[in-house]
Amino acid sequence: MFLPGSQMVHFDFASGLTEHRSQSENIQQTKSFKEFLVKLKRVIGGLRKDSLFCSLRVPNQYQTAKEEIDLVILTGRGIFCIDVKSWKGEVSVQRQNWHVHIKEQEEHFTNTSITQMPDPVQAIKNKTANLWSRVVRSGVAVHQSLFIPWVVFLSPDCILDEDLQKTKEVVTHGGLDSFFHSFKEGYLGWLSDAFTPSLLSGHLSYRQIASIREVLKRTGTWDTVSLHGGGQLKGDYRGCQHLALSREETDVLEFSHVRTLSAGSLWVLLGYSPKV
User: Which CATH number is 23-86+119-221 given?
Assistant: First the structure.
């Protein structure tokens, strides 16, 4: 974490993220996701902490790149792969892309902007399939139907057209409570699984759950730099020469300056980097 007055330098080596946001969008996305996660944990209750995995980087089909799944929940009923969106505006589909229409009312006119986004439903389906492939390659026998994709739209100001609302993988703001309580109801069923053989229930056995949990633990996440003010920088900093460390032995790094903000900015311009 950066302390007040810190400056970030020499991190232009980070790469791999496919969706870029402004600082305000990044902060809003982070805040919305944290609130979503807090409410989900509160409603479910009793779910093991090591059954929730955030920001997993899953290799694609060709092992040439990694893509992020916002949240993976491991239960006896299945492995739920969830992408969370904080979009605002009217959302429609044009061919294979989604269009987000945002209207801004000015004093004498209305300004409309249209942002073209890749299909998030197809994206989470692909990432879910890739995660299943990774689990199977790791030696765990599990049916693909137990890997379940979802896309959750958090904002009440995100209006999806009727066809998108009917998509089974989509959860809108109005359906959040039902979505949360479906996990609560499912949790009661997961408890009953303790007394029902997996061959009869069709659910994951304890051995499968333990094996999948180990695979998910070994699945990497993005390197995340938390900035003073709430922003975050995510990327793969493995190639950064200023971070030569053992990742197996390191969880958190703290960057700090002992100088004032103005003096620190001057040192950055002269090429000096923060001490770690």
Answer: 3.40.1350
